[in-house]
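ok here's DUF3572 domain-containing protein, seq below lol
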Amino acid sequence: MALNRQNAEIIGLQAVGWLAGNEELLAVFLGATGASEAQFRDSVSDPDFQGSVLDFLLMDDAWLTAFCDDAGLDYTAPMSARAMLPGGEAVHWT
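and the structure came out like this:
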């Protein structure tokens, strides 16, 4: 899949769906972010929210590989998608 903004949002939606289907990890995400289940459901299509889910999955290699394996994605796809979503721009400190 060629990565553009639309495909990045598709990967973001896949990540949200995958996380929603993993009750144990969803509870960790909700606890870490302070979001409620209702806020989670209401934010599914928000690219900012999708980026936060990708940020969360990128924190742990096991989560990332499980998501990619289930979604049939290359392990670099979530990082590439994250870079294309709001807030994913590279930060230049110099």
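fwiw The first helix runs from residue 5 to 20. kinda neat tbh
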